[in-house]
Amino acid sequence: MELDVDSTSEPMETRDPPASREKSRHKYHVQPSSLGGDILSRVGSPSLSMSEAFSSRSASLYQDEDANFAVQSERGCGITCCWSRTPRLRGGESYPLLSRRWKYTSNETPRSLSQKFRPRSFNDMVGQNVVVRSLLGAISRGRVTSFYLFHGPRGTGKTSASRIFAAALNCISLEEHKPCGLCRECLVFFSGRSRDVKEVDPTRVNRVDRMRSLMKSAETPPVSSRFKVLIVDECHLLDEETWSTFLNSLENLSQHVVFLMITPDVDKLPRSAVARAQRYHFQMLKDSDIAVRLRDICVQERLDFEQVALDLIAAKSNGSLRDAEMMLDQLSLLGKRITVSLVYELIGVVSDDEMLDLLDLALSSDTSNTVIKARELMRSRIDPTQLVSQLANLIMDILASKSEEDNSEARKRFSMRHASEADMQRLRNALKILSETEKQLRMSKSQSTWLTVALLQLSSLENSLGANDSKSSCRSAHEKDGDFSSTSSAAERESHKHIVPCSCGKLHQLGIERDWEATLESIWDKATQLCRSNSLKSFLRKQGKLSALSVNQDLAIAELQFHHRDSVSKAERSWKLIASLLQSILGCNVEIRINLVLYAPTSRCARLRKLSFGLFNCSRRIQQKKAKSSLPYGSSDSDYSDLTSEKPMIKDKVVLPESCHHRLEMVRALRSAEGNVLSMGTTSSHRSLLQDNAAPKTPGCGTESVKKEWESNHDCGFSQDWLRDQSATLCWRTPVSPRRKVPHERQRSPLVGWVLPCGTAK
Ligand SMILES: Nc1ncnc2c1ncn2[C@@H]1O[C@H](COP(=O)(O)OP(=O)(O)OP(=O)(O)O)[C@@H](O)[C@H]1O
Ligand SMILES: [Zn+2]
User: Fold this and answer.
1) Residues in domain AAA+ ATPase (predicted)?
2) For an engineered disulfide with 314, which of 185, 263, 290, 462 has Cβ 3.0 to 4.6 Å away?
3) Whose CA is nearest to atom 11 of ligand 1?
4) Quick one: how far is CA 649 from the chain centroid?
């Protein structure tokens, strides 16, 4: 079966392939109106009316059925598209399309600005000077090869350039500048009636036999032109076998055949194909080039505009002139002056200044304002995905110190406030978080929640980063006091920089005061929101609290607080689920520790309003599972039970003593008395820790007396068995020494007792 591309007849309706139908719809629509313009009248008419040619929408080379493949294709007459969506003329008149000053008459309605301002000569091409010069050089030097590959980002002019190049190859003008748009060949080409230039649909030719037919038909000499040009847009859609067939035949092609292949993604092509092509890379256009082109269009279209608005459009179009033109198109439809705020409003981005505000708040751990600002932005204008990407772009710009002179006042202020190396490090980390968040958002229904959580994490990580530099007097005070840090190993302190809940209610890391309670509250809130089991959710919200959090790159240790032993038991049973929820929010492995905080009811404890017991929950690290981490937990009974099947650490039978402090001492004494307790420590360091802590310090609290007391109170204390069971994982520390003067603020601190995981207690 031979494909005779030269035989032509009536123009026929193009049948767009499914893959390119969208594009074709957009690109090749014909407008029912007429052409005009001075230059048009100066030029002679081609034999057929140009309108007919344009309205033909040209011939498709291939039809669906194999049987009539060649027959149908014989009706092809040239490029498959109407080159410039030129309106159909009714009166048989015909005009050349190409003109530097070519204009639409008032009754012509091109579908879009992009369509209307499609380049028609190399001079119209923006920002691809090297490509243009090289292509012109090939023509003028007569060094035209048979296989060209145009690749690069979308909307940068590949398709336009391929058509211009095809026209230039056949232009018979003696002028250096080609295509002239006026010669016979140009007229035929731009009228869409060229029988020697065709656009080939890659999905229809994507079969070995069809490609073979195409190559064979290409061998027949051109009808009237010098070159037979075949343009294959989206050529990455061709299979390897089709490519092989093409490449095999390529060498035997005669000199007059030129293939122009176009793709936005050269990596999808077989290497052998790429290697044999003359490659032309179309780069992303510079913002400044785009802005100039937009200005040109605005002037021609008599649009009222602010130059900064055009600059903004250019900056937001990712180097694609088509994208920029489409934005301008939409704005022009509003019939208003094109201003910066209109651009922001229409394209759903927020101003850099507002973004900087948000970033500033997030980095400064101003939790409530961060949340308020993020919600405000999302409510009014921007969707979370867009916000994440805009924020990431902004951070990248800041890190790259992009165009200092273009910087707004807000950007300068931000840069001054965040200029140190540590700040840069924080921003790099923020980028990491945002990139993870972007992935999460794609799978999540509650995008705004995730985004808010991500913003809150920016500050959490910040704490982990700069803790070494911490000069916080408050933190030093903690360390000197031997507060919880005294129970932490040096290694743990090194690897986990705590968000330190200080007695004054603030975090003081990096010397910045933080509203830590609000941060923790918000994290807890988000975590529990993810829990779909309503009963567990309400239990965690009412009874539980995230009282502290320490984060390093890989692991977060979350301290949870409950006020009743039953709650502790329940929480213990659900520890896996709780850890999973927190893991989802924090995006890293989580260890949880469950603390019991009691309100001391007796006169002995009257001085202390609260006492807490830190119970180490042997929470193993949970490997992050990508698929699961993004989903809400506890969504069904089954996954709930799965997560809660772990044996509870605290048995129901445990009854806490009336006098917590006293009992605590008693327990320690008991441990000391029971030699086996020490031998049950998991590590030598753990044993020594137990030993240290187990020595009774209270006068009159000797082993015997404690035992007696224990026995007399066994119904309201810990069972010995239980204590033995737990001794490997349970460590105690005196909340407050009775002889030590308790500072007033410390009495108010909810975190009096801390416990180490055995593994890290060294
Ligand atoms: N370099 C450019 N110079 C002038 N106009 C351009 C340029 N790039 C894009 N445009 C504008 O964008 C529209 C689309 O361009 P074109 O189809 O040539 O891009 P493309 O790179 O082939 O994109 P795609 O890969 O999506 O097909 C053109 O009609 C034109 O208005
Ligand atoms: Zn010409």
Assistant:
1) 144-285
2) 290
3) 322
4) 40
| Residue 126 Cβ < 6 Å to ligand 1 | yes
More confident site: 340 or 206: 206
Task: Answer whether 114 contacts ligand 1 (Cβ < 6 A).
Answer: yes
Per-residue model confidence (pLDDT) at position 554: 59
Q: Is the ipTM of this complex over 0.95?
A: yes
Residue type present at position 81: C
Does the beta carbon of 125 sit less than 6 angstroms from any atom of ligand 1?
yes
Burial class (CB in 10 A: 0-12, 13-18, 19+), 275: exposed
pLDDT at residue 133 tops 90: yes
Domains of the chain are 18-99+115-281 (3.40.50.300), 285-347 (1.10.8.60), 352-465 (1.20.272.10), 467-760 (no CATH)
| Residue 270, pLDDT above cutoff 90 | yes
Q: How far is the CA of 735 from the centre of ligand 2 (A)?
A: 92
* Pairing, β 497-499 against β 545-551: antiparallel
Instruction: Give the nearest ligand 1 atom to 128 CA.
Output: 1
For 682, residues 6+ apart whose C-beta sits below 8 A from its C-beta are 728, 729, 758, 759
Pocket lining: 319 vs ligand 1, CB cutoff 6 Å: no
The answer to whether the CB of 159 is under 6 A from ligand 1 is yes
- Cα(352)–Cα(156) distance, rounded to whole angstroms? 26
Confidence of residue 259 (pLDDT cuts 50, 70, 90): very high
531 has pLDDT over 50: yes
Mean pLDDT of 329-338: 93
- Can you tell me the distance from the alpha carbon of 155 to that of 317, in angstroms, rounded to the nearest whole number? 10
> How many Å lie between the centroid of ligand 2 and the Cα of residue 642?
75
Most confident stretch, 115-124, 285-294, 374-383, 706-715: 285-294
Whole-number pLDDT of residue 703: 41
Q: Is the CB of 263 under 6 A from ligand 1?
A: no
DSSP assignment of 636-702 equals SHHHHHHHT-SPPSS-TT----SSHHHHHHHHHHHHHH-HHHHHT-SSHHHHHHHHHHHS--STT--
Q: Which ligand is nearest to the CA of 172?
A: 2
Residue reference for tokens 């293939």: 259
List for the chain the helix, strand, coil content (%; round to 5).
50, 10, 40
Residue 295 has pLDDT above 60, yes or no: yes
Q: With a threshold of 0.90, does the pTM exceed it?
A: no
Distance of CA 114 from the midpoint of ligand 1 (Å): 8
Cα 188 to middle of ligand 2, angstroms: 10
CA dist list (Å): 53 to 44, 189, 307: 16, 10, 39
* Nearest ligand for residue 120 CA: 1
